[in-house]
Design brief:
The protein is an all-alpha fold. It is 81% helix and 0% strand. Among the domains are: 1-132; 328-398; 492-561. The two termini are 88 Å apart.
Length: 561
Amino acid sequence: MEKQEIKKNLEAFVNAENELAIKEAKHLVQVFNALYLKEIEAFNNIDKTNKEDVEPIHPKEDELNREINQLIEAFNQNRKAQKEKAEKEIESNIKKKTQLLKEFEELIKTKENIGYLINGIKSIRERWSSVGNISRDKHNELQADFSKLNDEFNYNINIYKELKENDLKVNFSLKNKIIHELKELEAETKIKSIEENLKKIQLNWDSIGPTFKEHWEDLKNQYWELVHNHYDRIKNFYKEQKQKLNENLEQKKLLIEKAKLLVADLPNDHKTWEKLSIQLKELQETWKSIGPVPKKVNDKIWNTFREHFDNFYSAKKEFYNERNSAHKNHAEKKKILIEKIEQVVNSMEFDQGVKEIKKIQNQWKTIGHAGKYAEQKLWREFRSKCDAFFNKKDLEVKAQQEEFNQNLILKLEIIDKIKAIDPKQADAKELLINFRKEYALIGKSPKNKASETNGAFEKAVLGIHKKLSGSAQELQQLKDEFKIINIKDSYNPERTLQTEKDKIRKRINAVTKEVLNYENNLGFFSSTKGDNPLLKNVTSNIEKGKKEIEKLKNELKKLSI
């Protein structure tokens, strides 16, 4: 049912007085409350689905909702006024019937003529029947008193003398009919219907005149036994109903306590918020499955229950607003990392790129979640950029490996050529020099073959050098060449070269300190003759140190490749 239709119907029923119209109005209120609760739940969860920039309106602030709530308030006020009016009418009706019983009692005691008595009882009966509804317990009491007086009137005066035999038979038949109706009423299951029919039957019974005296006791006993049975049914029903209402009240109080405990310590993470939302929704479903409670506490207990939910969903909305702000911040940071990855893919050397990508990946891990929808999209883009880098580098590595393999072939060919040099040839030394230069110009060979290949090269060169009776200086030159070749052919030439340079510089610094220390010690020999052994030793160590420093500097210079 649409809310406009609910509003239209409530406007028609807001001042309703008959029971059917009131029931329909109550039904409309229940339908609206259910819709209203769903709107609040949808509003409180809107942060997960709403992608619009317009701020949503809270259901409490919706104009149509306010108009309907005003109609409900007016309806409740009218119902309250009607109830107060009905209670006053019932009190007034009780006084009227009590007064009629006094009149009835005085009438029976009077010694007036029969005509006066008959007219009097007729008037009392008519006025008794015209009095409106009264409370159930008073109705039973007053009706019993009225019936007793009515019986006393019928049988303590000589009215039977003036009644015809046919009247007695008709009354006998009518009273039996009423007893039959009372028996049929036992099959009725609706209490309201039993109450209404029982009142009509009792009014009809009391409106029927006397019947045969010999049958009266039996009829009266049957009648009152059936009436009492029905009143017992009504009494037991309302007793059970009252007990059930109280049981429902206790169950709903327990649900309020559960809701209170659940929202007492609000979570600070999405997973727990979701879990708590499910638990509270289950509480709402349980609440709906429990029957009504006493009317006097119905609104109060519902408002108490709903207050916990209002507080919960208000806090939940605030949490997700803050969370969404954090998600946006995380998303921006991750977009920046994606841009950095793209720069690495397009610009960096492989080894340096791998380090940079690992660094960026670690930074990615430290950034929080970017939200349910953005996170997966950003992650897929980030991962694709990383994959693109490694795919690109895989192709480069394959091409590089092919180049290394070709270099290996060339180096092995040169080694074979060196081995084939005849030392007796006039140009043997020149050939060896040319092959050495050619070998040094070839790029890297495969990592697993570099050491073996360079070792074979050194062996071949040294073998020919020895046969050619090369000088010690040439031998040192060869060793320097071998060192440079091995550095260039290492996995990381720059690092290897830098390590070697650092090693030489460290040795230079160490030897320099030793020389300075020896030079400082010369002061102790200022008055000592030149042939002093200790002085000679210090002087010798200084010379050796300086030569070593010079040698190390030359090695460092050779490594400036």
